[in-house]
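User: quick one, sequence for these tokens?
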């Protein structure tokens, strides 16, 4: 939408204020932005935190950009989900 600076600031704010309880949503934001490394790191954090939102991982359109990444496939396997 052409509002990268606002998007960056919002993500920094959410990360700073809510990292302990919205790791999955932070991963979604990074994935949507095409930031695979950050998204996968936040998915790992969500896994460690037992984030209930991981329930939605299969078919999550915001994570679509990660589907071809072998690290994402390894994460899905770590969760004992079918590919």
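Assistant:
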């Amino acid at each position: 939408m052409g509002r990268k600076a606002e998007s960056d600031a919002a993500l920094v704010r959410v990360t700073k204020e809510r990292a302990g309880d919205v790791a999955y949503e932070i991963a979604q934001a990074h994935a949507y932005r095409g930031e695979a490394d950050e998204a996968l790191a936040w998915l790992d954090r969500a896994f460690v935190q037992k984030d209930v939102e991981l329930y939605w991982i299969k078919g999550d359109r915001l994570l679509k950009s990660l589907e071809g990444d072998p690290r994402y496939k390894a994460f899905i396997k770590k969760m004992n989900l079918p590919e």
